[in-house]
Amino acid sequence: MKRFISIACCVALVACGAEVQPEPETNIVSPVALPLPPGAIIEEPGAITRPASREFLGSLRPDQRTPQERVPHIIERGRIIVGVDQSQNLMSFSDPTSGELRGFEVELAKEIAQDIFGDPNRIEFRFVDSTDRIRALESNQVDIVVQAMTITRKRQDQVAFSTPYFTAQTRILTVTNTDIQSAKDLAGSTVCVTDQSTGLDTTRREAPESRILRVRNWSDCLVALQQNQAAAIISDDAILSGIAAQDPYTKILPQVLGEENYGVAIAKPGHRHPTDGLIRQVNFTIERIQNDNTWWAMYQRWLEPYQTTPGPPPFEYREER
Predict the structure, then answer these.
(1) What is the reported pTM?
(2) How much is the pLDDT for 86?
C-alpha cells in the first residue's frame, strides 16, 4: 500500500512539474539588413523624366599656337590640375598595391600634360565626386575633368567639352547566376546607378517598373550588387568593364540600351574663365593620340579584354568665324 502511494505521488509530481515548468524559449534572429551606401537614395518606379539630349554643339579646333601661347597660366604654375575619379576601375582608379593612379583616363591626362610641358608627370590629380565636378571647374579647383563624363546638351550649358575621346555603349551588368537577360526582366527588381548620371535617365526609360538605387559612385553599386541590395547595374560598358574585372561572378549582358560620347570637361570660356586656349590644347592631344595610335595602345592595355569598340570617335568641331 505504501509503495502504491509513493508511485502515485511521483506520478503526480511529474505531472505537476510538466504543468509548472515553462517550455524553453527559442530566440529566432531575423536577418540584419545591411545599410545602404552613404548618401544613397531609393527611387520608386514611375519617376517621370525627359531623356537627356546627346546633341553636341562642337568643340574648338586646335590652332597653330604653342602651349606657351595657349595656356600661359598653366605653364607658369608648372603643372596642370586634373579632376578624376579614384574608383572607376580600368578608367581611373587607385592601384591597391602601389597607391598609384592608373587607367585609360589617367593615361589620357598624362598625354595632355606631355603635350603642354614635355613631361607627363607635371600633373596634379584631384579626386572629384561625380556630383561635384561642374562646381570644381566653376570654382577653379581643377583645370579639366577627365571622368567618363558623357557629353549632353544640358551639360554644355554649364561647361565646355573637348571633342569626344571615347564612345561607350550603355548596357546592363548583373550576377552570373541570374535569370535576367535584358531590360524587360528587371521589372520588380532594384537597379543601381550613380546619381545625376545619364544611366539614371536610361534606367527610368528602359526599366520603368524597377526601383532605382541612386549612389555617389560606381564602387557603391558593386557593393550593393554583392550585398543583394540591387539586382543589376546600368551604365556605360567602359565603366561596367571595370566592375566585371573586379568581380568574376558578374557579367555584362549583350543588349545595348544607348550610346555615350565622353569628353574632357573644361570651364566655359568667358571673362571669368579664359579657357579657349585650354580647350584647343586638349583637342590637340586628342587628335595626336589618334593619329599616332597611342589611343589604340591605351585601349588595348585597359579595355580590350572586356569589350569591343569601333575605334576612337570622329572629331567634332564647331564652325568659327
Answers:
(1) 0.84
(2) 87
